[in-house]
Specification:
The complex is a heterodimer of chains A (1104) and B (139). Chain A has 1104 residues and is of the alpha/beta class. Chain B has 139 residues and is of the alpha/beta class. Chain B has a four-stranded parallel sheet with strand order 2-1-3-4, sandwiched between helices. In chain B, helix 1 packs across helix 4. The termini of chain B are close together. The chains are: A alpha/beta (1104), B alpha/beta (139). The interface between A and B is large, with 46 and 43 residues.
């Protein structure tokens, strides 16, 4: 049985007045287990403590209860006494009979009775207390500071100067934060950069500081003394070891985007340095991923890239960039079906960029003579000189392979020259692309049909690999009676003859059957040969597979289209005389997703016709390939989807031969894919896979953009379209530049590689990846700073609609000597010097109903400063400030304010309700409460003192770090009065505006405070934790793991071998959730076990 | 049976970070309230097992008052959410057992709310007085 000593304090009259301490002592003496009871005036005093010490020794007490004030005040005091008496400190408990009893009750009898219950409950607790040893944990002597504005910089310097290694993490590419954006600081008007940059440089050169900029915290685990941190160092796509900040890249980058440092007053390039004094002084590329156009293109053509280069007037470079992915620039610039344009984000605003037509321009005007190359590598054979075959040859030749292309026809180009009419694709354009391909040393043998004298087996013997791409030119038959009558000319045959210059005679009336591009081509060719043409299509316009713009041109040219009609029989004796047609209706969708045409019985009608041209699709001719080439059920070749290799080793295939009739760009993509696969196989390496992430501009970017219509392609007028002259005339240079400037630069950096070309130290690396770095740290300082309250939500002030309404931070940039106006105060709209500026204080702050309830603290002072600096620069300028109060509570602040009012700034007390434009002038409508009137002030410029809010990352941070933030998302301190730099989590400290609005001197003071707290932890080798943690009784534990899920600190884990739960004493914070959740009682919080609680409850309720 | 002399016995299960601190503040501010609530101090309201509450009712408590931190303020992240769930569940159980669920009250009282603490103790004591002693506890 434990010998418990009870010590009752009078606390002067604080307790003794309302609690009969003498009677209480007598009563307690009789309580079971109490070996000694005494009362004294002031237990916490020296004599009081000695009293306890004596009793412990003389009475050989096992446990002590001190009945006095709140344990928050003196639990430690009395536990220290116990330790001095060689009694385990956790055998000492306090009973609060002051705050909880004597101070809140008047009746002595009632109060004494309650005190008795309270003391007895603590006696019961201590009866079952066990001696506990504090938990010792090694401390990692390293600090982490998150955020490198002035708060983070100061904290890092203080910790590092104490000799402790510090990791400083900053999310932007440079340290400095918002202070680097300021011009001068109040009240001394020191130049902000002048006082900041020495500290920045000190940080960069400090041997104890590891600076990680452009980095973010990925994950944090652990607890004080032993945090584990994962930092993601984002890729700047520039090797900062090599970059020397020469800025040549900045000159040649063709992409401009928002300049965050200048608060969007100007733009910056995709490759940039935040400001000239940036630390580290290196360049960073903002690349959000790959633009949607590039991802939509089957060949991955860098559309955003070549469009950016067009904007910069670099047509040659643009064409070079385009040809890295697709040699057929002239061809695709005219006849590509441009899936890129369907995904163009500009299309969400007004219309997609005319990407294909821009490509045509550079193909036509960006050409340059290519030096003829002679590859020396292994030999590859290609069968077919259509876009698939020639592309494959091109990409292989660029890799130094010696490629021979075998073409059955006498002309080179496949469908490009045999199928597409010249009024869409002139022969010269196709030739230009083919010549470019041949310049890389590709040999083309025409008039050689593989399968005749030379077989595929011969090629396999003589070449390292073979690519078969003979296309799909075998016509599908209509399978109607009379299809073979003279006068019925199949489409491919027809187009080929015309393209090769053979004479084709057509009658007056021609019917083309089908709805694809071939059908439209055939119709438009027939029209030019003088016939009256009707297209018969069995579905409706919506389902036509032909490009909509081609259909439109055909109709403009006078070609009629009859929908929902199909030929049933071809009528005629010696030749075609008429077609018997059936009307169709649309039924349920078929496999292609389009509604199936169903003939309407009895709807036959006749069309008298001289020629019929069926154009109902084609299929590949693969009979000449042996059975070892596996076929699909649709009659195409089976290939591996990743390598395009057929079922015969070393033979690859792509294009229409594999897919059936498809598009040119898909054929090009297939050729490229096969070339890469063949090359990888030959070299014995893995195929390189690029992981592309689709980038989009931020939604805010689209809000600001004005609608601009897409450039219209000039075309030949209908009456001039008699022959086969090209119908589309192409853009001129001015149109091209204008159209290119509509591009939204979705990915920002477009990998045009101009920077790479001028970088002397060869620092650009577009494949550089993010790095994940891991560190162990003992303490963390959070200094994540602030953002400006979004001025767009202050709709009444017209920010965003009136360009001369700016935020205070923007005004700082205008005042700044290194800013966009080199320190001259000028209006953003026209560059004029404003003669009157109205400053609106509390723009968003102190507005409980609509915006932020709190006061942002710094705005009164900086607005006064802005007015003064404006007056200094524009001597006849008139600053007017609308205010609610002027809060100038710092050292020298009131004096500064007086100076400002003395030197000619007008203060009007009242809120501004509206800022608007009237007749081209800016009017500020506000109140003057001191005169009781409404005032209307005409202003040249308006500056909004926008409220400050914590950075949006705070919300995520508090979850990662397990600290709290308040309702305004500022980080919560441990105690608002007495512990302003500590969070509620041990080892994590707060500094700067992240914890609440404050000005620079307060930030620096707080940063040093946080640093000192961190240092106090880090100078120790070990720190102690309270041992009142939850343990595990392994005999009772069934391994149900309910406690594991309940623990907020992940301190418990199931040992799968022993099937019991284990607790990490360093992580357990002793909340007791697991003890309440545990069904078997295996989890018990030490010195607050279930038994103790139950006994305490019983003792409180007993009447004795 | 006259309820006039009935003095309820109420156990207060308070978390040390918030409610117990609020009680301290009420004391420092010398607020006055009835002495029927005897406090028992926990590190977190989530330590409170429903069994402890039932134990209290079985052993003579007429009411049980649980005090924890406001949502978002729990010193141990989310202990108060667990308490809220357990009490909600227990309320249903008490109803099934024939115990008026008003006898178990859950309050979120922050360390700054000495005033609120006082009011809650007064209100709850009055409410239990009106409800009378828990069956089986009549003397």
């Amino acid at each position: 049985m434990k010998k418990i000593g009870v010590f009752i304090c009078h606390c002067g009259i604080n307790i003794a007045k309302t609690v009969d301490v003498e009677a209480l002592t007598e009563e307690i003496k009789k309580y079971p287990g109490v070996a000694y009871a005494e009362n004294y005036k002031y237990m916490c005093s020296d004599p009081g403590q000695n009293l306890i010490l004596d009793a412990i020794k003389k009475q050989k007490l096992d446990a002590v209860v001190v009945s006095a004030c709140s344990p928050t005040l003196h639990e430690n005091t009395f536990r220290n006494v116990s330790e001095r008496g060689s009694l385990n400190r956790y055998m000492c408990e306090m009973a609060n009979i002051r705050e909880h009893c004597s101070w809140v009750h008047d009746d002595k009898e009632i109060a004494t009775k309650k005190a008795s219950h309270i003391i007895k409950s603590i006696i019961e607790k201590v009866r079952y207390d066990e001696p506990l040893e504090p938990i010792y944990v090694d401390v990692t002597r390293r600090a982490l500071v998150i955020g490198a504005g002035i708060a983070g910089i100061q904290a890092a310097l203080d910790i590092a100067n104490a000799g402790i290694e510090t990791i400083l993490v900053e999310k932007t590419p440079s340290i400095g934060g918002h202070m680097a954006q300021l011009s001068e600081t109040f009240p001394t008007l020191d130049c902000s950069q002048c006082i900041l940059t020495p500290k920045m440089v000190e940080v960069a050169q400090h041997d104890k500081i590891k600076l990680l900029t452009y980095s973010e915290i990925e994950e944090i685990s652990g607890s004080v003394g032993n945090f584990k941190v994962k930092v993601r160092q984002k890729s700047p796509f520039v090797d900062w070891e090599k970059c020397n900040g020469c800025a040549e890249c900045d000159l040649v980058c063709p992409v401009s985007t928002n300049n965050e440092f200048e608060c969007d007053l100007t733009s910056r390039k995709a490759i940039y340095r935040p400001f000239p004094q940036a630390v580290p002084n290196r360049f960073t590329i903002t690349k959000l991923g790959q633009p949607p156009c590039r991802i939509a293109c089957p060949a991955g053509v860098n559309a955003q890239g070549y469009i950016a280069l067009i904007r910069a007037g670099k047509y040659k470079e643009a064409l070079e960039l385009e040809r890295e992915a697709n040699p057929f620039a002239s061809v695709c610039g005219r006849v590509c079906n441009h899936p890129c344009e369907s995904d163009c984000v500009r299309g969400e605003l007004d219309e997609p960029i005319a990407i294909a037509s821009l490509k045509r321009y550079i193909a036509d005007f960006g050409s340059y003579p290519v030096e003829q190359k002679k590859p020396t590598g292994e030999q590859i054979a290609v069968i077919g000189s259509g876009p698939a075959g020639l592309s494959c040859a091109y990409f292989l030749a660029k890799k130094n392979y010696r490629v021979t292309v075998y073409e059955a026809e006498k002309v080179v180009g496949g469908m490009l020259v045999l199928g597409i009419p010249e009024f869409r694709l002139p022969r010269a354009s196709t030739k230009a692309d083919i010549d470019h391909i041949k310049a890389f040393g590709v040999e083309i043998k025409t008039g050689v049909k593989i399968g005749d004298k030379l077989g595929i087996e011969d090629l396999r013997k003589n070449y390292r690999a073979v690519f078969v791409a003979t296309g799909a030119y075998e016509e599908m038959k209509l399978r109607v009676e009379g299809e073979d009558l003279p006068g019925v000319i199949h489409c491919i045959d027809f187009l080929k003859k015309v393209n090769l210059g053979e004479k084709v005679t057509l009658g007056k009336k021609v019917a083309v059957i089908g709805g694809g591009n071939a059908a439209i081509d055939a119709a438009r060719v027939s029209k030019r040969l003088g016939s009256d043409v009707t297209i018969l299509y069995r579905r409706s316009r919506k389902e036509m597979p032909a490009n909509a713009w081609e259909v439109e041109e055909a109709e403009k040219e006078g070609i009629k289209i009859e929908f929902l009609v199909t030929p049933n029989r071809v009528l005629g004796t010696n030749k075609i005389e008429a077609i018997e047609c059936l009307r169709m209706e649309l039924g349920a969708p078929d496999a292609s997703g389009r509604r199936r045409p169903i003939p309407i019985p009895g709807s036959e009608f006749k069309i008298p016709i001289d020629n019929m041209i069926p154009a109902i699709s084609q299929k590949p001719q693969i009979d000449w390939l042996g059975e070892e080439f596996e076929r699909t059920k649709w009659g195409t070749l089976v290939v591996d989807p990743n390598t395009l290799e057929t079922t015969v080793k070393g033979v690859y295939s792509g294009g229409d031969m594999v897919t059936g009739p498809a598009t040119i760009i898909e054929a090009v993509a297939a050729g490229k894919k096969a070339a890469e696969a063949m090359d990888a196989h030959i070299r014995g390496v893995e195929i390189e896979h690029k992981e592309w992430k689709k980038a989009r501009p931020a939604p805010e970017t689209l809000i600001g953009e004005k609608k601009v219509p897409r450039a219209e392609m000039p075309k030949l007028s209908i009456d001039r379209r008699k022959g086969f002259d090209e119908v589309e005339c192409g853009f001129d240079e001015e149109t091209v530049k204008q159209e290119a400037s509509r591009c939204l630069n979705c990915a920002i950096c477009c990998e045009c590689l101009q920077c790479e070309k001028v970088c002397e130290p060869d620092a650009i690396d577009h494949d550089l990846k993010d790095k994940i770095l891991e560190y162990d740290v003992g303490a963390i300082v959070v200094a994540t700073g602030f953002d400006i309250y979004d001025p767009l939500s202050l709709k009444e002030y017209s920010f965003g609609t009136i360009p001369d309404v700016v935020t205070s931070l923007q005004f700082e940039r205008l005042l700044s000597a290194s800013g966009p106006t080199v320190g001259e105060v000028r209006r953003p709209s026209d560059g004029r010097v404003p003669k009157r500026i109205v400053f609106i204080q509390c723009a968003g702050s102190r507005d409980k109903e609509n915006h932020l309830e709190y006061c942002s603290k710094i705005c009164c002072m900086y607005t006064a400063k802005h007015a003064l600096l404006y007056k200094h620069r524009v001597h006849d300028g008139e600053p007017i400030i609308f205010y609610i109060d002027v809060r100038t509570g710092g050292k020298g602040y009131e004096e500064f304010y007086n100076r400002v009012t003395d030197e000619g700034t007008t203060y009007i007390r009242g809120k501004v309700s509206k800022v608007y434009k009237d007749n081209g002038k800016i009017i500020v409508l506000g109140a003057d409460t001191l005169s009781g009137k409404q005032v209307e002030v005409e202003a040249d410029m308006v500056v909004l003192a926008a409220g400050i809010i914590p950075t949006k990352e705070n919300e995520e941070f508090v979850r990662k770090l397990k600290i709290q933030c308040d309702a305004n998302e500022f980080l919560t301190e441990a105690h608002p009065k007495l512990r302003p730099v500590e969070s509620n989590t041990l080892g994590i400290y707060l500094a700067g505006v992240a914890q609440g609005p404050k000005d620079i001197p307060e930030v620096v003071a707080q940063a040093s405070g946080a640093a000192s707290k961190a240092i106090a932890i880090l100078v120790k080798d070990k720190i102690t934790f309270e041992p009142t943690i939850a343990g595990v009784d392994e005999d009772l534990c069934s391994g149900c793991s309910i406690c594991v899920g309940v623990c907020p600190y992940d301190a418990r884990e199931l040992d799968k071998e022993k099937m019991v739960v284990k607790v990490n004493a360093a992580l357990c914070q002793g909340c007791g959730s697991c003890s309440a959740a545990c069904p078997s009682g295996a989890a018990q919080q030490r010195n607050l076990v279930d038994r103790q609680i139950e006994e305490m409850v019983v003792s409180v309720l007993e009447e004795k | 049976m006259s309820k006039g002399n009935f003095e309820p016995k109420i156990i207060g299960f308070f978390c040390k970070w918030c409610t117990s601190a609020a009680a301290d503040l009420a004391g420092t501010s010398r607020k006055k309230y009835p002495a029927n609530v005897i406090p028992i101090r926990f590190f977190c309201s989530s330590r409170i097992d429903p069994q402890h509450i039932l134990h209290a009712f079985r052993n003579g408590a007429d009411g049980v008052l649980i005090g924890g931190c406001h949502f978002g303020d729990c010193h141990y992240q989310n202990g108060n959410y667990k308490t809220a769930r357990r009490v909600a569940f227990l309320h249903n159980l008490l109803r099934d057992m024939g115990v008026d669920k008003r006898r178990l009250r859950l309050e979120w009282i922050s360390a700054a709310e000495g005033e609120k603490f006082t009011k809650v103790v007064k209100d709850f004591t009055e409410e239990i007085k009106q409800l009378g002693p828990l069956k089986g506890n009549e003397k």
